[in-house]
Amino acid sequence: MKTLMLGNEAVARGLWEAGCSFASSYPGTPSTEITEAVAKYSEVYAEWAPNEKVATEAAFGACLAGHRSFCAMKHVGLNVAADPLFTIAYTGVNAGMIIAVADDAGMHSSQNEQDSRHYAKSSKVPMLEPSDSAEALEFTKLAYEISEKFDTAVLLKMCTRVSHSQSVVETGERVETVKEYAKNPQKYIMMPGNAKRRHPVVEERTAALTEFAENTEINRVFDGSDKSMGIITASTSFQYVKEVFGDRYPVLKLGMAWPMPVKKIRDFAASVDKVIVVEELDAFIEEHCRNIGVEVQGKSIFPCIDELSQNKVAEALGVKVHHGEALDEAIPARPPVMCAGCPHRGLFYTLAKNKLTVLGDIGCYTLGAVPPLAAIDTTICMGASVSGLHGFNKSGTGESEGKTVAVIGDSTFMHSGITGLVNIAYNDSNSTVIILDNSITGMTGHQQNPTTGYNLKGDPAAKINLEELCRAVGINRVRVVDPYNLAECETVIKEELSVNEPSVIISRRPCALLKYVKHNKPLVVDADKCRSCKMCMKIGCPAISMIGGKAKIDNTLCTGCGVCEQLCKFDALKAPEED
User: Fold this and answer.
1) Are 460 and 530 part of one and the same domain?
2) How much is the pLDDT for 323?
3) Are 490 and 69 within 8 A, CB to CB?
4) Cα angle for residues 229, 232, 234 (degrees, 5° grid)
5) pLDDT tens digit string along 104-147?
6) Which domain CATH number covers 565?
7) pLDDT tier, 417 (very low <50, low <70, confident <90, very high otherwise)
8) How many CB atoms lie within 10 A of CB 308?
9) pLDDT in tens, 292-338
10) Which of 302, 323, 420, 482 has the fewest CB atoms within 10 Å distance of its CB?
11) Are residues 149 and 237 in the same domain?
């Protein structure tokens, strides 16, 4: 049956059709929907893991037991999963195992633009790279065949445009495949003696996979009438090339990102006058071509920064570009901002007001760095705020301890903040960590996590008690505040910064967008009392604006949180009177 699917949904369908029975992931845009979609198939056990390393190790355990398994993450998540990945490359698998990684060229929702193809090469694990939803389904099924044929995990590389665009797929039926587990210490116990014997196996497998790459149909040549130029490309870049040139030039589309063929590329290059490589981010294909003696042009024409597009490809290769019709007026800028009623806003206002140095982390609360709050000094990676705070305070002579904090979300804390807090307790760091507990994983679209009490499918699950967890790792001072209460936030923050021992403050209030959260009635402005002081504007709430010199509240956005009301010295903002 033919149907329209997102690329991520197509991967999930491919998992189901291929007989996958175990999926473990950590949500990360643009990969999140794969696991959400596969969880809807009753034959597949699906879960959110605390982080990508745990998800990868769990998926390996499932494949070891004889069941086809899967885990997914975004590109920076593969950094976290790299430890097991490199050793699973040595052990191989039992049943098939797929690791999906979704790159985010253009950094739509990421802190860097890394190219995950390098992980395939350095870990010596094959990688497939679909260019649309149909291939996403097809390549997922093929990945299991490759995994079991060559005794290896397989990386499936998605990207934002393939993950989040729709195209037609043809669905099929599910097949069931289960293997027996057989104890094999020499294969699966990676002590040095065994690992030394496994490394040659990996190199032999890479050679066999290179031969496979020469003949597989997913590395395909599209003929063209004009042989003056040939194009080698992959993934979404292939779509841009075909849209710009159609069938004019020959195109070698590489569906297997690693290992790449040698003879096929050389033969293709010999059939055209010159070769252009069109790929996003790094010169991965280009460098491979040069390494095998094929002269190409690539990054001398195309940037290694940001996404490509039809227009960028056309402009770089001298084709007339149609830019469309321009509007008469400029579109108003819409900078990212925390939602109206966001529980983090009051806490960040308090931090900014007290001129504290704030080490930030990964989550929607990173928007606390945006003016007018501008309350965050650093954001590096998941968990880095807690570890960084320890180093920041320990490296000095104590002068920073009373004016520096770390902020980290509840899901991010479970992902990789705990170990940093253990370090603070163990090494007696006079540091204050603020856990922003909004009862959900907010940035990626409201996924459950170990602190919410529910699992991926919404069923009741063990709920981690953050207060008890912090005390269990050695933190004696643990306080809970309501971020809507500005006075309470300021009092507790000052108290914890004044003591000479580690402490944790839990800022607890559910995300304002959660369906079960009930809001108060929108506040109203008494124009006669408003003095146009703009104190209410200092929190950056999108529900508040200034019109005609007076504060104005948009009652379609306002949640009645009351934070702005606490800032107004003239009592101009207040809850509406009851009818």
Assistant:
1) no
2) 67
3) no
4) 145
5) 999 998 999 999 999 999 999 999 999 999 999 999 999 999 99
6) 3.30.70.20
7) very high
8) 24
9) 999 999 999 999 999 999 999 999 998 877 667 778 888 888 778 89
10) 323
11) no
- Same domain for 501 and 533, yes or no, is no
Tell me the two tokens of residue 403. 């004016």
HSE-CB for 453 with a 13 A CA cutoff: 4
Task: Report the CATH number at residue 93.
Answer: 3.40.50.970
- C-alpha 491/C-alpha 354 separation (Å) is 11
Name the nearest CA neighbour of 117 among 241, 282, 237: 282
Cβ contact 540:371 at 8 Å: yes
15, amino acid identity: L
> How far apart are the C-alpha atoms of 430 and 441, rounded to whole Å?
28
Kindly state whether residues 203 and 236 are assigned to the same domain.
no
ω into residue 259 within 30 of 0, thus cis?
Answer: yes
Q: Angle CA(524)–CA(530)–CA(534) in degrees, nearest 5?
A: 95
Instruction: Give Cα 237 to chain centroid, integer Å.
Output: 21
> Which one of 212, 238, 262 terminates a domain?
212
**pLDDT over threshold 60, residue 579:** no
Is there a single domain that holds both residue 53 and residue 131? yes
Any domain includes 327 = no
| pLDDT at residue 207, rounded to an integer | 97
CB 49 within 8 Å of CB 69: no
The predicted structure's pLDDT at residue 329: 84
Q: Is 31 in the same domain as 146?
A: yes
* Domain count for the chain: 4
Is 346 within 8 Å of 483 (Cβ atoms)? yes
**Whole-Å CA distances, 16 to 25, 40, 218, 343:** 16, 10, 21, 39
CATH assignment of the domain containing 296: 3.40.50.920
Q: What span, in angstroms and rounded, lies between the C-alpha atoms of 401 and 241?
A: 55
What tokens were used for 470? 């912090």
- C-alpha 475/C-alpha 478 separation (Å) is 7
The answer to whether 250 touches 230, Cβ cutoff 8 Å, is: yes
Q: Is there a contact between 493 and 354 (Cβ–Cβ < 8 Å)?
A: yes
d(CA 361, CA 382) in angstroms, rounded, equals 6
Structure tokens at 37: 């979609």
* Structural domain containing residue 479: 344-508
Cβ neighbours for 214, distance < 8 A, ≥ 6 positions apart: 261, 262, 263, 264
Inside any domain, residue 324: no
Indicate the residue type of 100.
A
Q: Residue 578: its pLDDT value, please?
A: 59
Q: Are residues 238 and 197 in the same domain?
A: no
Name the pairing type of β-strands 166-170 and 2-6.
antiparallel
Which residues fall within 8 angstroms of residue 468, CB to CB, at 6 or more apart?
none
User: Quick one: CA torsion of 132, 134, 136, 139, rounded to 10 degrees?
Assistant: -120
In a domain, 554, yes or no: yes
Q: Is 374 left (phi over 0), alpha (psi -120 to 50) or beta?
A: left
| Residue 446, Ramachandran bin (φ over 0: left; ψ between -120 and 50: alpha; else beta) | left
**Do 150 and 22 fall into the same domain?**
yes
Percent of the chain past pLDDT 70, that is, above it, reads: 99
The answer, yes or no, to whether residue 84 has pLDDT greater than 90, is yes
Tens-digit pLDDT profile for residues 154-168? 999 999 999 999 999
> How long, in residues, is the chain?
579
Task: State which amino acid sits at residue 341.
Answer: G
Domain termination site, one of 508, 534, 561: 508
